[in-house]
Amino acid sequence: MKLKPHLFYRTTKDGSPGWKFVLPSLVLISLIGLPILALIWRSFNIKIFTFAVSESAVNALKLSLITSIISVILSLVSGTPLAYIQAHWKFRGKAVLDLLVDLPVVLPPSVAGIALLLAFGREGLFGAVLNNIGITLPFTTVAVVMAQVFVSAPLLVRSARIGFAAIDPQLEEAAKVEGATDWNVFRLIMLPLAGRALLTGVILTWTRALGEFGATLLFAGNLEGKTQTMPLAIYIGFEQGLGIALVLSVILLAVSLVVLAFLRKLELQS
Amino acid sequence: MNKSFVVLSVIIIITLTSCATSDTGMVSPINSGQTTSPNVPSIIRGTSPDKHTLTIFAAASLTGAFQEIGKNYETANPGVKVSFNFAGSQILRTQLEQGALADVFASADHMNMDLIISENLVAANNYQDFVSNQLIVILPPGNPAKVQALGDLAKPNLKLVLADASVPAGNYARQVLLNMSKDPMYGADFSVKVLKNVVSNETDVKQVVAKVELGEADAGIVYTSDAIADPNLATISIPDKFNVIASYPIAILSSALEPNLAAAFVVYVLSPAGRTILIKWGFNSGQ
Fold it and tell me: ipTM of this predicted complex?
């Protein structure tokens, strides 16, 4: 975002004044920019280093990075084929499937957490069966990943689906005439052509997984080193004193910015 | 001309944001003092002058009792709406420090009230202990881990849920465990062994109750009042020699927009009728 001075008194092609665009934009830019600015500004007054190297901050950051990366990989591996099916296959109940996969995007995370507990909790619908064979999911790192995938994978599926749907069906037919198998069509034609959409999906999924809070707190609980991710550590830290929460927030902000910039660069190159 | 519009819009945005900050009690050079004046509360809250809202920040453990007290108070004071914010006392304290507007603060411990006083949000010594609570061990229906006595809390692989150490109930629970460790019957490492079984540190005491009630945890340590509010739970009481007495202080905030209504609310909480409700919800009202 480069705000050069001339932008303010630029006019649009039809001669109408540019402020009709600039003015509403400024409202949104202030709403997003000012809190970020305040966060960084306030954190300058605090001994960042002492808090940043504290064991619980390092543990939370490590856990957040590991779980969110696993979540993205799981979403990619299971979400890409699903998106392909949704985009290219015709079958009964497809509308229901589309709705189901999109549902977590609009569902509040707290509802997601309760639903996960009721399904996979120790006394849950399926969790009780798992419990009988010695597997308990709540309060484990696995539960953290499950919560993240639940809320974030649909973003990848949506993005990939749009990418696959935009590919000209004639390409697929031509390849099949030449004797390509379904798998080869998917691997050699569809994946490369939908690459950009997939990358956008990865960015959205990763940032959503990294920021997951509500479902994690309800389904996985809060235990340092095991289920306490950065957002949870920030929330708990906020209760102990603004300083810890601030520093953790700035770290998370910095990490998010670096990865976001890296992925955007990749996206532009592809 | 376009330039002037941009300047104007910047001024509007700055004014809007500074209004917002002074609303939340932070210092603003432009109009501080105006919005916090007790003469204009109805304008700020967008209600007509004879409709009043009393905002109460209360510890999560008070949820059931205060909701009942609030209803009775509304009946006795037509035109007044009592609005509650229930959360861990430490969350409420942080919200107040960051400028949240409230009339009454009821904390589950003295530490958070003392911090509020040290920041001049409540006048010194202007609080009263109105109720007390004790701790109890709760078990899920069916008691899957077969916890029979307090000593079983140290059994390996038991799933115990506590409130976080920053939450009053979590702090008290850890004190109880330390008290028990001093008794040779449990052993000096009792507290360490029990804390090893903790699978989650919840953000308020009601979350502990929820996790135990769902059967996700084998045991939890909460207030006696929480156990009474939920008859599905089995309990193991903690003897007085180990237990702690949590006194709950209540205070009117210095920045209260409805100081008179707030005072009337505190009087009602302390009245025999208020005490009856608190006792009904499992609190000790011997203060």
Answer: 0.72
Domain B37-132+248-280 identical in fold to domain B135-244:
yes
Query: Cα angle at B127 between B124 and B132, to 5 degrees?
Result: 140
C-beta atoms of B94 and A239 within 8 A: yes
Chain B residues closer than 8 Å to A19 by CB: 2, 5-6, 9
Q: Which CATH class is domain B37-132+248-280?
A: alpha beta
Q: Taking the domains of chain A in order of start, what are their residue ranges?
A: 1-45, 48-269
Q: Considering the entire predicted model, what is its pTM?
A: 0.74
* Chain A residues close to B1, C-beta within 8 Å: 17
Distance between CA atoms of residues B236 and B134, nearest Å: 12
A180-202: pLDDT as tens digits: 888 888 888 888 889 889 988 99
- The answer to whether A222 contacts B91, with C-beta atoms less than 8 Å apart, is no
Where does B135-244 sit in CATH, by number? 3.40.190.10
pLDDT digit string (tens) for A120-143?
A: 998 889 988 998 898 889 999 999
| A159 within 8 A of A200, measured Cβ to Cβ | yes
> Do residue A34 and residue B211 have CB atoms under 8 angstroms apart?
no
Domain A48-269, second-level architecture = Orthogonal Bundle (1.10)
The Cα B104–Cα B35 span in angstroms is: 19
For chain B, which residues make up each domain, given as ranges?
Answer: 37-132+248-280, 135-244
- Minimum CA–CA partner of B140 in chain A: A123
Element (H, E) at B41: helix B41-44
B-chain CB neighbours of A217 within 8 Å are 203
